Write a sequence for this structure.
């Protein structure tokens, strides 16, 4: 059984329906007991970092989640479910779960080059949030969730913050948005992505299918 954590935020319907369409036995839950009996855990997320941590604390899920991951239970974090793994976020200057070392930072308003014209270089302000389709460059091609997925495949993103892991060895994929940022981490049983596979059409379903088959 795959436990999808319901902490009052995130695309629970999209994620759970995508997993069910792949034949997975899915339970959307707020109960620590379900995390204990599940084979895998998914933490989706859309929203503010502090609100998510407060919700997990209110539901008394923080320690049970940490315990299950320490027992090597397979985990998939999506978007905010990636960011919450880290030590601290600039969003609300809030502490995270601290399972992975590093910070969550906001995109800076740099400019992105668009090419040159006879009047010089054109540029446009970097828009925040980073929203829409972007390429994912695979850094660890032995990652089982990328089986059957081409390097630089397009996935769908919606986020204003990104993670900066201290341990660069856990970076499984990167994406360029006026500079490279980490779009996936992988450490043993922990897989977490900044993009939304449940919104990424065929390539996203293949990614989730690989997760279901683990």
């Amino acid at each position: 059984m795959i436990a999808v954590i319901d902490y009052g935020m995130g695309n629970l319907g999209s994620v759970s329906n995508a997993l069910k369409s792949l034949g997975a036995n899915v339970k959307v839950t707020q109960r620590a007991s379900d995390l204990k009996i599940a084979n895998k855990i998914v933490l989706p997320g859309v929203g503010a970092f502090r609100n998510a941590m407060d919700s997990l604390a209110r539901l008394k899920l923080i320690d049970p989640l940490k315990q299950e991951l320490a027992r090597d239970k397979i985990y998939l974090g999506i978007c905010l479910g990636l960011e919450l793994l880290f030590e601290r976020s600039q969003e609300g200057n809030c502490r995270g779960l601290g399972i992975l070392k590093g910070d969550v930072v906001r995109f800076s308003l740099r400019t992105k080059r668009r090419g040159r014209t006879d009047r010089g270089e054109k540029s446009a302000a970097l828009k925040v949030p980073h929203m829409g389709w972007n390429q994912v460059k695979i850094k660890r091609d032995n990652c089982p969730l990328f089986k059957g997925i081409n390097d630089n495949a397009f996935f769908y993103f919606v986020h204003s913050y990104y993670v900066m892991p201290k341990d660069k060895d856990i970076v499984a994929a990167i994406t360029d948005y006026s500079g490279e940022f980490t779009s996936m981490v992988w450490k043993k049983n922990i897989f977490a992505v900044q993009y939304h596979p449940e919104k990424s059409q065929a390539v996203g379903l293949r990614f989730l299918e690989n997760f279901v088959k683990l």
Notes: Confidence is low (pLDDT under 50) at residues 113-121. The radius of gyration is 17 Å.
